[in-house]
Amino acid sequence: QVPLVESGGGSVQAGGSLRLSCSVPDLSGSNYCVGWFRRAPGKKREVVAAIDVDGSTRYADFVQGRFTISRDDAKDTLYLQMNSLKPEDTAMYYCAADNAPLNIFWMITPGKSDWGQGTQITVSS
Question: Comparing C-alpha atoms, which of 40, 45, 88 is closest to residue 63?
């Protein structure tokens, strides 16, 4: 298992922006697909965005062009730029990594059990 640490969360008004970071040990020397997930109170965990080692990306429908996932392997860091935030984006956000192709990662990873602490996003109207 890969221990990950999320940061960058906070409270913003609707329409605002936040940038999340995730430390991914040995990202530069891996074949990891990495991604962001979230869980709001009363809802199940859902995948937000993912990026593969070749730079291929996939986004949830609710992003609608608002979020951008990126990776800096030289810094062992994953990012999520979140723009035009909405109250329904309020959730705990988590990152994850695995040696899997992008679409398999997308389908399988939400069901894993070893999530980290996460970082809280709160969007007020």
Answer: 88
Q: What are the pLDDT digits (tens) for 26-35?
A: 999 889 999 9
How would you class 3 by CB atoms within 10 Å of its CB: exposed for 0-12, middle for 13-18, buried for 19 or more? exposed
- The Cα 103–Cα 108 span in angstroms is 9
Q: Which residue has tokens 């800096």?
A: 72
**CA-to-CA distance for 94 and 91, rounded, in angstroms?**
10
What does the pLDDT look like over 40-94, one tens digit per residue?
A: 999 999 999 999 999 999 999 999 799 999 999 999 999 999 999 999 999 999 9
User: Dihedral, CA atoms, 69, 106, 86, 93, nearest 10 degrees?
Assistant: -80
